[in-house]
Amino acid sequence: MKKTIILLLTVTTLPSMANENISAIKSIALVAVKKDSTQYVRICNAADNKCGIETKIWQDKGLNDVFYLTNSSLELIKIKNNNGAYVNEGLWRFDEKNKSTSPDEELNKEGLYIYPALYPLSKSKQAVALVSKWATSYSGGGREEEYADFVMINNDGSYETVFKNIPFSSKEMIRACFSEADYAKTSHCHDENWSILNLKFIDDGKKYYSWKFTTKSYNWPAFTDKSSTSVTVDENVAYPFQSQPHSSE
Questions:
Q1: Hey, is 75 helix, strand or coil?
Q2: Which helix (H) or strand (E) holds 136?
Q3: 6-57 pLDDT, tens digit each
Q4: CB–CB of 6/194 below 8 Å?
Q5: Could you please report the per-residue DSSP string of 81-135?
Q6: Alpha helix locations (H) across the chain?
Q7: What is the pTM for the complete model shown?
Q8: Which of 134, 152, 131, 151 is nearest to 143 (CA)?
Q9: How far apart are CA 86 and CA 43, in angstroms?
Q10: Which among 133, 197, 198, 234 is most buried, taking Cβ atoms within 10 Å?
């Protein structure tokens, strides 16, 4: 069975490569609001009672008065607290947006969701990630992969694709122990691979920020100590709406 490189997206940014003294342009992680809170109920009411079992409400980590609601219908609703009154400030419907095909014939599609983060495109524009999940099971292991379309959200409820079908998150474990002797001699009975993708946003003075994708990939073979894990790094750059990530070398 073939092995694959694992890609795991984390919402992080690095300092500007041009000048380390310049403040980093950061993505915004959205923090979940507790479902049993009064605030959750009030936001649901402001969103025309669109809350259901799979609904989640997120708070903009950088702004105490801005919230986003996501649900199983792939709607993104922006809610703002104006002096105690929760007001609906925007609605985006993505239900027909992502029609991605399987990245591998082994994988089955398991869903599509909006990732809880905002990604900077410029001083006034942001994008969200629409993530499709694919998976399969092995005997004693399995594989999952996620791919994202990054889309710019506009104030009028429209949206535009910035980058399409970007490896977003995945993991794989392949069983390597098959006998009692194998299990007796080691506690690491799987071949494991994973990677972390760091996003960096660079202001070059253009209309949009350039995006830099830095992927650090790890390979931990079975029957070895974790200190034997090998690491490779790949860097890619792309400009919104014009290109997919490509090698910067």
A1: strand
A2: strand 126-138
A3: 333 333 333 334 444 345 788 999 999 999 899 999 999 888 878 888 999 9
A4: yes
A5: EETTEEEEEEEEE-TTT--PPPSSTT-EEEEEEE-SEEEESSSS-EEEEEEEEEE
A6: 38-46, 180-185
A7: 0.81
A8: 134
A9: 6
A10: 197
Nearest alpha carbon to residue 50 among 92, 96, 113: 92
Instruction: Determine the average pLDDT of the residues in 142-167.
Output: 91
The rounded radius of gyration (Å) of the Cα atoms in the chain is: 21
Residue 31 neighbours by CB distance under 10 Å:
12
Q: Which two tokens stand for residue 34?
A: 């507790």
pLDDT higher for 249 or 21? 249
Q: Max Cα separation, the chain?
A: 67
d(CA 149, CA 123) in angstroms, rounded, equals 21
Percent of the chain past pLDDT 70, that is, above it, reads: 86
- Tell me the per-residue pLDDT of 54-113, one tens digit each, with 9 for 90 and over: 999 999 888 889 999 999 889 999 999 998 899 999 999 996 555 566 677 788 888 899
Note the pLDDT of residue 100. 62
Instruction: Kindly list the domain boundaries of the chain, sorted by start residue.
Output: 28-247
